[in-house]
């Protein structure tokens, strides 16, 4: 038998080690290796426990739930056979497990054909709720084992529990021949809805046909649709200030009976958003998106110049002037100066910042009643002190605004700020995603937010904007119930979260704005939620009263003539008052 030479221990005293391992303590390597191994063991064990504790299923059956959830969020149909094949189990075992999940209320069967012999499988709201808890705890476990785990803060269980799960499917497909027909506005929320079309088609069980129009074209189409014998749309998106006119003309159906039957939690919606879609105590719309008109500013530029964020219109002019640097391609402030609707909105909310709505609404303890109760409430206020002050303020802004300001609209002003061409801007929260989610924008991570700078009064205010979904009054009777079911699904908390994770940052629901996953997307979500709770976000600056659209147009035309030098302030406002009074006198004839 061959004998191997005995390895001699190195003589450490006599010289340097011959290799790196000769001097290294291998116990440290074994210890590090054991720690990593133990972390993996603990992670898998904790994950198995989480599967059982939060999903309420055996870890063996996780493949069924994974396949079902994957199809649910991607809008793909799941059949019994496809789910069994994806489970990794034998067909007999898979069918028994699926049947048990149905019996436990975690899966729902929805018929696909009139015979009822074919059906699809979907997660129930209970499974989606459990999945949200499971996903939250799984992400926490991953955080704990990634790297060395140092400094990782464990998310409280209460936060995980407040995360809103995805919307579930309707148990019965909508009875809507030719599918669901929508008329909507072309903005990020409705574009997100279009992006998610496949998933919502699965949720509702019918195809979705959607027409998206710009604001003026949308209003014209709603008016034209109201003149048809039968509505061409099941659901229409209505700008909040339009509800007074649309209801007065009989174009919208009251939703009161449908709300009562469905036990909808209307308290979860921003109160002023619900009030904007209400008329004489009757609800005509359910808010889909709510925005705030804020002043945005570059924190870095103000800090470099030693300037404080502006709280008043005088402060705003001063800061915009100090940061106005046309030679460097940067201008003081961007705002809506485009003729017509864009400038009309600007003037209306600027009047509100000076303490007066565009019509003579009744005063309340904290502002104004956002609805007319008498003809006196509809008197135009272009001859008020606030209107004169607002006109002067806009005139002063011209000197520190970008070129072409008198053709600028909502998207243009947001783009000017996003690109770094404006140091400040009036902006709807609907469009702040342009710079909040663009790392290449100079404003990315450097933006501050404030309510509207105040003028004659010291009370901060942020005009509430947004859209509510409504059912046309001339919709065929047999389509009303399924249209309401679709409307409820589209305005649900789960749907609102989907919109916000796909490009929108404008939710009308308190629960959605408190979702920890959403609050991590952008600071604007918490800001809007805070000002809504503080009573700063209000509907009266854009009141949903009859004739408001005409008043906005008049303001947008007359003030544009003033800003372009065609009329004096006195002439423009006098002409606006005269035109507005005539419109309000004849509003029932229009």
Automatic annotation (TrEMBL):
Location relative to the cell: Periplasm
Main location: periplasm
Top-level taxon in the UniProt lineage: Bacteria
Entry keyword Zinc: no
UniProt key word Transferase: no
Family annotation (SUPFAM superfamilies): Periplasmic binding protein-like II, Winged helix' DNA-binding domain
Segments traversing the membrane: none
GO CC terms, sorted: periplasmic space
Ranges where the record places region Disordered: 1-23
Swiss-Prot/TrEMBL keywords: Periplasm, Sugar transport, Transport
Sequence similarity: Belongs to the bacterial solute-binding protein 1 family.
PANTHER family: ARABINOSE-BINDING PROTEIN-RELATED, DIACETYLCHITOBIOSE BINDING PROTEIN DASA
Designated name of the protein: Multiple sugar transport system substrate-binding protein
């Amino acid at each position: 038998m061959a004998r191997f030479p005995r390895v001699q221990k190195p003589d450490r005293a006599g010289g340097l080690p011959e290799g790196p391992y000769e001097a290294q303590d291998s116990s440290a390597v074994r210890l590090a290796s054991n720690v990593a191994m133990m972390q993996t063991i603990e992670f898998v064990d904790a994950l198995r426990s989480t599967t059982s504790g939060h999903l309420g299923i055996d870890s063996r059956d996780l493949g069924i739930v994974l396949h079902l959830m994957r199809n649910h969020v991607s809008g793909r149909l799941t059949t019994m056979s496809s789910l069994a094949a994806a489970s990794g189990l034998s067909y007999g075992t898979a069918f028994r497990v699926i049947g048990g999940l149905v019996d436990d209320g975690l899966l729902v069967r929805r018929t696909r054909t009139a015979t009822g012999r074919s059906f699809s499988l979907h997660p129930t709201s209970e499974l989606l709720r459990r999945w949200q808890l499971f996903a939250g705890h799984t992400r926490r476990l991953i955080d704990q084992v990634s790297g060395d785990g140092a400094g990782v803060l464990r998310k409280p269980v209460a936060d995980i529990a407040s995360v809103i799960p995805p919307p579930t499917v309707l148990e019965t497909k909508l009875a809507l021949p030719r599918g669901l027909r929508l008329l909507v506005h072309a903005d990020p929320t409705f574009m997100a809805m279009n992006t998610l079309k496949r998933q919502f088609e699965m949720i509702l069980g019918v195809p979705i046909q959607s027409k998206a129009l710009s604001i003026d074209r949308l209003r014209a189409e709603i008016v034209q649709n109201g003149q048809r014998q039968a509505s061409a749309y099941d659901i229409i998106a209505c700008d909040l200030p339009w509800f007074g006119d649309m209801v007065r003309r009989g174009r919208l159906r009251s939703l009161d009976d449908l709300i009562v039957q469905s036990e909808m939690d209307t308290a979860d919606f921003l109160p002023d958003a619900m009030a904007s879609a209400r008329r004489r105590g009757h609800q005509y719309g359910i808010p889909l998106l709510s925005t705030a008109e804020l002043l945005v500013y570059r924190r870095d530029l103000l800090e470099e110049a030693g300037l404080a964020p502006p709280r008043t219109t005088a402060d705003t002019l001063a800061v915009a002037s100090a940061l106005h640097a046309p030679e460097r391609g940067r201008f003081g402030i961007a705002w809506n100066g485009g003729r017509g609707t864009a400038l009309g909105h600007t003037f209306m909310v600027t009047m509100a910042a000076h303490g007066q709505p565009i019509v003579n609404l009744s005063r309340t303890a904290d502002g104004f009643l956002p609805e007319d109760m008498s003809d006196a409430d509809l008197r135009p206020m272009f001859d008020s002190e606030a209107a004169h002050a607002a006109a002067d303020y806009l005139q002063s802004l011209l000197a520190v605004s970008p070129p072409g300001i008198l053709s600028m609209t909502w998207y243009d002003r947001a783009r000017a700020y996003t690109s770094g061409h404006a140091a400040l801007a009036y902006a709807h929260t609907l469009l702040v995603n342009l710079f909040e989610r663009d790392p290449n924008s100079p404003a990315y991570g450097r933006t501050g937010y404030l309510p509207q700078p105040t003028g004659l009064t010291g009370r901060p205010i942020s005009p509430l904007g947004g859209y509510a979904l409504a059912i046309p009054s001339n919709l065929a009777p047999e389509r009303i119930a399924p249209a309401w079911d679709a409307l409820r699904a589209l305005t649900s908390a789960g749907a609102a979260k989907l919109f916000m994770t796909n490009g929108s940052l404008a939710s009308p629901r308190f629960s959605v704005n408190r979702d920890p996953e959403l609050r991590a997307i952008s600071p604007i979500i918490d800001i809007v939620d805070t000002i809504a709770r503080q009573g700063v976000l209000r509907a009266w600056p854009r009141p949903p009263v009859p004739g408001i659209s005409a008043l906005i147009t008049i303001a947008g035309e007359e003030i544009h003539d003033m800003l372009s030098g065609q009329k004096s302030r006195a002439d423009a406002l006098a002409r606006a008052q005269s035109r507005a009074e005539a419109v309000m006198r004849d509003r029932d004839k229009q």
